[in-house]
Amino acid sequence: MNLPSRSIPTFWAALGGLVIISALLSSSPANAHAIIELNGVAAVAGQTSGLTLEIQHGCLTGQDGTTQVTAFAGKPWGAIKPAAVSGWTSVSARLANGGQQITWTIQGAPQPFVKPIFFPLTVNWPKSAGIYSLRVLQVCPSGVTWWDTPFTPATAAAPSPPLTPLPQVQVLARPGSTDAQTTDHDPTSGAAHSGH
Ligand SMILES: [Cu+2]
After folding, report:
1. pLDDT in tens, 7-30
2. Residue 140 belongs to a domain with what CATH number?
3. How far apart are the CA of 142 and the centre of ligand 1, in A?
């Protein structure tokens, strides 16, 4: 290829960007994006244990760093308490729909794009076993990413797994309980995805 010399740095910068994007897109949902980790302790209906919300990279639109993260829990969730995270402040609020939200805001410069963020939470789990979700809004100087796309089979227009999957957690029945499983259908946001 015969590139004018002054365009070579731009070419390599663009190529580098493509490599980063390709790496992100080819990652499995289990080790990319916004995810919930239970750290070896099962979530049991009506009981209290830990959850870590992990935001594994910055916003994909501008390839820039995170400044704020908000997690939205539906009405079935019991109390959620954020632990202190160095460099971040957190605010919890009850929502009119009976749910709750926790917002973390960075105190200094944005979290670098490639550096994951870990938000530990203590959760009083929903009273019924089932699958529950945390809708997550990630804010960066370039824009926002909503992590709220349900897992569905691929269609002509949409891949599976989705590019901005909804973080979900399996809550188990208490031992000896005859509770039927329920599924938490959080209302999806009307906001546009910034997408991968
Ligand atoms: Cu991702």
Report:
1. 444 444 444 444 444 444 444 333
2. 2.60.40.2230
3. 16
Measured in angstroms, how far is the CA atom of residue 47 from the centroid of ligand 1? 31
Tell me how many domains the chain contains.
Answer: 1
Ligand 1 centroid–CA 56 distance in Å is: 7
Residue 39 falls within a domain, yes or no? Answer: yes
User: Residue 52 and residue 71: Cα distance in Å, rounded?
Assistant: 12
Write the pLDDT tens digit of every residue in 54-93: 999 999 888 899 999 999 999 999 999 999 999 999 999 9
Q: How far is CA 178 from CA 42, 99, 160, 183, 189, in A?
A: 18, 25, 33, 16, 33
Residue 127: give the domain boundaries.
29-183
Residue showing tokens 């870990």: 118
Find the 2 Cα to ligand 1 centroid distance in Å. 35
